[in-house]
Amino acid sequence: MLELSESARITAGIVLLTIVGIESGGFFLLRIATGGVAATDFQKTFYRAGHAHAGVLVTLGLLCLALAGATSLTGLWYWLGASGVLISAILLPGGFFFSAMGAGRTEPNGLKVLFPAGAIFLAAGVVTLAVGLLTA
Q1: Cβ of 134: how many Cβ atoms within 10 Å?
Q2: How many CB atoms lie within 10 A of CB 112?
Q3: Is the separation of the CB atoms in 68 and 82 below 8 Å?
Q4: Is 71 helix (H, G, I), strand (E, B) or coil?
């Protein structure tokens, strides 16, 4: 049986609840696809990418959270290995959605800065966790 720390268990429960938000994003995409919400081709592409990244990264983040308990990582390193992907699951989809918001937008706004921040957390989280697993 998988055993999670108290904080990992609570984090996992909260993250699972975010899936309802991802699901509502799917409904929003359906409304765009059926013409219920106007969006430019750029916005459609970015909204689809944001939705896909959210689902994949939340799933991977939950796996990383569970796997972190099998390492000997501590402190900041444990937090990064357990939560880095979950942080990227906020930043990367946020970059896609928030940088595409606004009527008639055809290119990303200033919130595109969320992309490199999310990419850094994703890479740092998976590399830290991988090193922790390989050295445990």
Answers
A1: 8
A2: 15
A3: yes
A4: coil
Q: Are 38 and 102 in contact (CB under 8 A)?
A: no
**Residue-wise pLDDT tens for the chain (136 aa)?**
788 899 999 999 999 999 999 999 999 999 999 999 999 999 999 999 999 999 999 999 999 999 999 999 999 999 999 999 999 999 999 999 999 999 999 999 999 999 999 999 999 999 999 999 999 9
Instruction: Decide: helix, strand or coil at residue 85.
Output: helix
Tokens 């938000």, residue?
21
Place of tokens 């880095």: 84
DSSP class of residue 107?
S
Domain ranges of the chain: 6-135
pTM, two decimals, is 0.93
